[in-house]
């Protein structure tokens, strides 16, 4: 499944084309993705302007001001989109499709999986089509009232975002205090930190020199204050996510950026999927090991991650 940096990379690729655009027409090539589309989904979107394209955890959020006619909906709504396992977007303009780069799968083999097409009138670009392609159909889209977004089951209880300065040692200390759960499990708990996935947790823990087996609560002082190691971990999480976004995310299996190109961060992995290789940390003579925690592979160096 695409992780937060991949979703953020897609958001940034779509943003110049979608923000400020009017949805002229929506073509649904099937009645459902992972879930059925909401009732009158296409009709409720047509004529609406996309005010902003945001992200919460691994969801893309298109903010739509009040409906075109009062009979269609009341108040502002949010088009929430999830990529699932293999979902991706393709941008088509009068000048051609934005699909440069090398693909994990031949493009022509996947056009039959173009399930949703948003026909937009974009201020800067004119007629633009945003195509959602999803071979496995684990992605989904839904329309939600903006005022109820945070209370919706998809978003209720989500933890702090791991981007920006809000994620610091103090924030992690509040959610880690007295937790006996392994550090890896705590970081993957979406109720504590929203959007972190397996790849980037492994990488951040390596950067911080912390074992995925270590109890999360041991990084919090008896007074509830973050230890120096926890402050370092918060910084390394932010930096790992930022580096991955800058590199365009990772390309594992089907993930691709909004313009069709593959991400490059996988070439920077220090430990993820590098079982048996020498630890890349200078002066460390350990080798990367793989263990299974809660059904997920954890890659780490036991020599320098304690």
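Sequence proposed for the structure above (306 residues):
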């Amino acid at each position: 499944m695409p992780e937060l940096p991949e979703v953020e990379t897609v958001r940034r690729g779509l943003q110049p084309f979608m923000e400020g655009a009017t949805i002229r027409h929506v073509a649904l090539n099937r009645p459902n993705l992972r879930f059925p589309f909401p009732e009158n989904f296409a009709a409720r979107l047509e004529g609406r302007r996309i005010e902003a394209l945001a992200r919460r955890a691994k969801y893309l959020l298109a903010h739509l001001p009040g409906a075109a006619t009062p009979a269609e909906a009341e108040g502002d709504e949010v088009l929430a989109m999830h990529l699932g396992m293999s979902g991706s977007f393709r941008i088509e303009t009068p000048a051609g499709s934005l699909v440069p780069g090398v693909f994990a799968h031949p493009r022509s083999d996947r056009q039959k999986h173009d399930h949703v097409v948003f026909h937009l009138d974009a201020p800067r670009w004119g007629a633009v089509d945003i195509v959602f392609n999803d071979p496995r159909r684990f992605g989904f889209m839904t329309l939600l009232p903006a005022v109820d977004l945070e209370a919706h089951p998809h978003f209720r209880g989500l933890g702090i975002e791991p981007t920006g300065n809000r994620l610091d040692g103090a924030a992690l200390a509040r959610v880690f205090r007295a937790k006996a759960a392994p550090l890896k499990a705590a970081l993957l708990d979406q109720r504590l930190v929203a959007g972190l996935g397996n790849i980037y947790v492994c990488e951040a823990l390596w950067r911080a020199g912390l074992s995925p087996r270590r109890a999360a609560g041991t990084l919090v002082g008896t007074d509830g204050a973050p230890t120096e190691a926890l402050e370092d971990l918060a910084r390394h999480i932010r930096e790992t996510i930022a580096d991955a976004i800058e590199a365009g995310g990772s390309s594992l299996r089907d993930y691709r950026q909004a313009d069709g190109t593959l991400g490059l961060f996988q070439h920077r992995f220090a430990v993820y999927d590098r079982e048996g290789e020498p630890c890349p940390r200078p002066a460390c003579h350990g080798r990367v090991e793989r263990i299974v925690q809660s059904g997920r592979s954890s890659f780490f160096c036991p020599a320098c991650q304690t």
